[in-house]
Amino acid sequence: MAGRWGVLLAALLWAGPAAAAELVMFESAGCPWCKKWEQEIGKGYDKSEEARSLPLRRVRMEEPRPPDLMNLGRVVFSPTFVVVERGTEIGRIQGYPGEENFWWMLGNLRNRLERMQRTGFPPAPPPPPPPVAGVGMIGMGGDGMIGMSGLAAGPGMAGMWGTGPALQHNPNLAPAP
Question: Are 123 and 102 in contact, with CB atoms under 8 Å apart?
Fold first, then answer.
């Protein structure tokens, strides 16, 4: 009988966070846009209306990704904000677009989440394949312009930080050299 309780307790401990929706912030040390977000939004986020439906969860990019977030697509830029429910990515904001744009974009993601809650969720996608070593650090902005990480290449790339040890040695991207 004690063995069953031990198995149940272990399953509960390894289950991770509850299946409620959350806003996951992927951040890295030394990220100037993360600091700007913290000054403009982060210090009061917990008191906002959005925090009631999307509590903030911070994940350091330098550390291994938590098991319950392995289904999410690759995160390259810091900060990246991902709305997640039941292991399903609802949408993301890459970079910090400024206070007004952040709230507008988060509002759009909340609307998408509410629609999905009303109509039902598709099953969670299978985990992505392991990352490939040697993948370049290139991203595409919302305006279709391509740029190297850490460099602004149009409006879609502004507010992203992708250089330095946090990205170069991110275990979610590629093994450290």
Answer: no
HSE-CB for 29 with a 13 A CA cutoff: 8
Q: How far is CA 37 from CA 42, 52, 64, 134, in A?
A: 6, 19, 23, 30
- Cα 38 to the center of its chain, rounded Å: 15
The tens digit of pLDDT for each residue in 81-104 reads: 999 998 889 999 999 999 999 999
CB contact set of 7 (below 8 Å; sequence gap of 6+): none
Q: Which residue has the tokens 């991902």?
A: 82
Q: How far is CA 160 from CA 57, 77, 81, 177, in A?
A: 19, 6, 11, 24
By residue count, the chain amounts to 177
- Looking at every residue in the chain, the average pLDDT score rounds to 74
Give the residues across from 93 on adjacent strands: 81
pTM of the model: 0.62
**pLDDT tens readout for residues 108-131:** 999 999 988 888 876 556 666 666
